[in-house]
Automatic annotation (TrEMBL):
Protein name per its UniProtKB record: Glycosyltransferase 2-like domain-containing protein
PANTHER family in the cross-refs: UNDECAPRENYL-PHOSPHATE 4-DEOXY-4-FORMAMIDO-L-ARABINOSE TRANSFERASE, UNDECAPRENYL-PHOSPHATE 4-DEOXY-4-FORMAMIDO-L-ARABINOSE TRANSFERASE-RELATED
GO biological process, alphabetically ordered: lipopolysaccharide biosynthetic process
Chain coiled-coil ranges: none
Pfam family, one: Glycos_transf_2
All copies of domain Glycosyltransferase 2-like, residue ranges: 5-162
Record GO terms (molecular function): undecaprenyl-phosphate 4-deoxy-4-formamido-L-arabinose transferase activity
Keyword presence, Transferase: yes
Keyword list, A-Z: Cell membrane, Glycosyltransferase, Lipopolysaccharide biosynthesis, Membrane, Transferase, Transmembrane, Transmembrane helix
InterPro entries in UniProt: Glyco_trans_2-like, Glycosyltransferase_2, Nucleotide-diphossugar_trans
GO cellular component, one term: plasma membrane
UniProt keyword Glycosyltransferase present: yes
């Protein structure tokens, strides 16, 4: 079995983080010798830092701590840059994903370069469900990336994909997972999705988009997608002998 880099991105998760770390260690890390467990903490003020420092040695964690909040996208990019293994697994740390679903992805990584979780049955509010459905329709028809859950924070990637993505200038501060899927697909990497479970959030506050800021966030996302579409049109498309293409 190939060792992996497992990354958890954490912000204000004092109520769940120890349980999440223990769960991912027991069900994933402990079963793949030589793997590394990276926790990227993004400026928490609720005691999350103290918990991570206390359990660091127990679970052999590589901790990346932040004094101030950088935001999801910046923290995500910094976390990916820390990974050293050829296979990189990323998950949100809110306790809504089952670590056992990792194995569905791991079974596919020989045939694909990026495997994204598809929360077919989601435990979110109606507003978020409708926004997600509309957003994925835009991604599917606007970028020819037929995914049901392109922004899912539960995915497996080969390091060559991550290295390429880190070399790119990202446009989105929100829904960055979808942008990465689009960029990987356009580069010619093989992207697929697999159905994963999704639980109701039991601890902490949901990271759903704030209602008051929602109009500005939607404008930002649409503007970012427009820039991404423009970048793709400006680039030349190449193909290799295997039919893969990149821009």
């Amino acid at each position: 079995m190939q060792p992996i880099s497992l990354i958890l991105l954490v912000h204000q998760e004092a109520g769940i983080i120890e349980r999440a770390v223990a769960d991912f260690h027991k069900k994933v890390i402990s079963k793949i010798p030589g793997s590394e467990f990276i926790v990227s903490e993004d400026g928490s003020t609720d005691g999350t830092k103290d918990i991570l420092l206390r359990i660091k040695e127990q679970y052999y964690l590589t901790l990346h701590m932040g004094d101030k909040r950088k935001g999801y996208t910046v923290a995500f990019k910094e976390a990916l840059a820390l990974a050293t293994k050829d296979i990189i697994f990323f998950s949100d740390s809110d306790g809504q994903h089952d670590p056992n679903d990792f194995w569905k992805m791991y079974d596919l990584i020989g045939d694909y370069d990026m495997v994204i979780g598809w929360k077919k049955t989601r435990h979110d509010g109606l507003a978020r469900l409708y926004l997600s459905k509309a957003f994925n329709a835009i991604i599917s028809f606007g970028f020819s990336v037929p995914l049901h859950d392109s922004n899912c924070g539960f995915r497996l990637m080969k390091k060559e994909v991550v290295d390429f993505l880190l070399s790119e200038n990202w446009h989105l501060r929100h829904c960055i997972g979808a942008e990465l899927a689009i960029r990987a697909h356009r580069r010619g990497f093989r992207v697929t999705e697999v159905e994963v479970s999704h639980e109701t959030r039991r601890f902490g506050t949901s990271r759903s988009l704030p209602v008051k800021k929602l109009p500005l966030i939607i404008v930002h996302i649409l503007s970012g997608l427009f820039k991404l579409k423009r970048d793709n049109k400006k680039s030349l498309t190449h193909t290799d002998g295997n039919g893969r293409f990149w821009v």
